[in-house]
Each structure stands twice: as structure tokens, then as C-alpha cells.
């Protein structure tokens, strides 16, 4: 006979911690990518102005925020689409 261990439940604190870790990591990565894209756009296209850097960082933070909302509230993230008439 094979002895199998029963599946143990994951504590809710652990699930919440994993979600927060994912959100913080996602925020850092996407804000960094937005910042980098803003710096490149600023240097190449906009004569070294600062607003592309802030805009790129803001877009990265906003996208990370929406991804975190989707993780914490999966049923609310995608509202049903209305069918075209």
C-alpha cells in the first residue's frame, strides 16, 4: 500500500501575502519599464523634457494597479460586455 499525505490547506494569510508580493513586484517592474520608456522618449523625441518620464512612470503604475485589482477582485475585473445591437 502506498502512503499518501493528505492535502493541507493553505492559510489565507499565505494567499494574501503571495498576492501582495506579486503586486509589489509587478509595480516595480512596470513602473521601471514605464520610466525607461519615458527616458528614451524624452531623449529621442522631446528634447529632454521631464513630462515623458513622469507620463511613462504613471502609465506603468496605473497598469500595475489594474493588475492588482484583477488579482484581488477577479469577479469584478471583467464586467460583462453588452452585445452589439
Automatic annotation (TrEMBL):
Record-level GO cellular component terms: MICOS complex
Q: Pfam family of this protein, just one? A: DUF543
Per UniProt, what is the membrane topology? Single-pass membrane protein
Spell out the subcellular localization from the entry. Answer: Mitochondrion inner membrane
Keyword Glycoprotein annotated: no
Q: Does the keyword Mitochondrion apply?
A: yes
Q: Where are the transmembrane segments?
A: 27-46
Tell me where on the tree of life, at the top rank, the source sits.
Eukaryota
Q: Which keywords does the record carry?
A: Membrane, Mitochondrion, Mitochondrion inner membrane, Transmembrane, Transmembrane helix
**Function description:** Component of the MICOS complex, a large protein complex of the mitochondrial inner membrane that plays crucial roles in the maintenance of crista junctions, inner membrane architecture, and formation of contact sites to the outer membrane.
Cite the record's note on assembly. Component of the mitochondrial contact site and cristae organizing system (MICOS) complex.
PANTHER family recorded for this chain? MICOS COMPLEX SUBUNIT MIC10
The family line of this record is:
Belongs to the MICOS complex subunit Mic10 family.
Q: Under what name is this protein listed?
A: MICOS complex subunit MIC10
Amino acid at each position: 500500500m502506498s502512503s499518501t499525505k493528505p492535502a493541507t490547506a493553505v492559510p489565507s494569510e499565505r494567499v494574501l501575502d503571495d498576492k501582495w508580493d506579486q503586486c509589489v513586484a509587478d509595480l516595480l517592474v512596470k513602473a521601471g519599464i514605464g520610466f525607461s520608456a519615458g527616458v528614451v522618449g524624452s531623449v529621442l523625441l522631446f528634447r529632454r523634457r521631464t513630462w515623458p518620464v513622469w507620463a511613462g512612470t504613471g502609465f506603468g503604475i496605473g497598469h500595475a494597479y489594474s493588475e492588482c485589482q484583477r488579482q484581488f477582485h477577479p469577479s469584478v475585473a471583467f464586467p460583462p460586455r453588452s452585445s452589439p445591437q
